[in-house]
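Before relying on records like the one below, remember that each one covers exactly one chain. Contacts with other chains, cofactors or solvent are not represented anywhere in the record.
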Amino acid sequence: MRVFAIADPHLSRAFPKPMDIFGSNWQGHPGLFFRRWRETVREEDLVVIAGDLSWALRLPEAMLDLEDIGALPGRKVILRGNHDYWWPSIGRLRQVLPPGMFAIQNDALVIGGLALAGSRGWITPHDREFTNEDDKIYRRELERLRLSLEACRKLSYQKFLLALHYPPTAADGEPTGFTELIEQYRPDAVVYGHLHGAAGNRVMTAWDGIPMHLVAADFLSFYPKLIFELPGSG
């Protein structure tokens, strides 16, 4: 089983929203996202989608985008991004997800020998725009990530992937509560999204020896990124 990751597809089938206003690399979106997924991913593969799936504001609208993703090859694991306003309670969401699609929130799961934990994350205290309100959300997201990582500790697996929507640290690269959890729980790799227009030479690729992958769709030219290969399909 091959494990891929991508983030920030920013789909909007209910109310189409052109993304090329954010840069020429978005031209051809969302068709580019679907086409390059199909060029890359096979049915026996797994793809982690690290947030910002849909611009929808309500679940019925987002279901159009979730069903389009569900029709793509491979199994999918999703987590919430900062623009996923449609995301309901996790119980309600799991009731309506397309077959072969799973969601992580305050918990963890194993698919084909791969353990997955994750959280949305948030901007961190060294960010120059960090406010008192951000501090409340930051602390809440730290607890949600800790719960997910603790759940992962109880599982049996071959590899362990941690997925975040936000990067775990600000642009200055200073330690945060998120990096402390990464050091404590030692995943085999971390994937994160959210950053658009990031230059390759400014992207964090490791923390304390743990590989880190920026998987924002536009950064990857809309090709899901291969993270692991595991024997079998589990």
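The CA atoms of residues 17 and 157 lie 40 Å apart.
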